[in-house]
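Researcher: Please predict.
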Amino acid sequence: MQQQRPGSRNSGGPRVNEQILSETVRLVYADGEMAGVVTIAEALKAAEEAGLDLVEVSPGAEPPVCKILDYGKFKYEQQKKSAEARKKQKTVDVKEIKIRPGIEDHDYGVKMRNARRFLEDGDKVKVTMRFRGREMAHQEIGQALLTKMKGELSDVCKVELEPKMEGRQIIMVLGPM
């Protein structure tokens, strides 16, 4: 049975045993059987007789729902559930591919393979085309290259940010389907 020091606070978790403040509670036994609405003293007595803890599982209900169970085991199960949920989460990274207007065919192929791999792995791809010097006079070459790139990757991505000029570079963001 969970021992609570007087005046100690349960940090963040459900209230246990003497921490439950309500006068009456809806009691559920360890086997799942409903006992109905009882006083807190009766509920604590029933939990002590079972050698388990009284845990407030639904504090928002009226009256609060309390269950008789092993609090240590309950906390352990909740930790396992949250760890499993974190493990299944996929964070979406933004991978950046930098190109220039005068990129050669082979280099373009390498960049396209990388972009396709990133998108298939579920990451976003930010394509940055930088113009240097006199290349600024031929921005249509850069726009055509980005349009070609969009067309070739259309089967694995959707365009999240259309190509737009920012200073001396054009930026486009592609997201996975």
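Model: The two ends are 51 Å apart (CA to CA).
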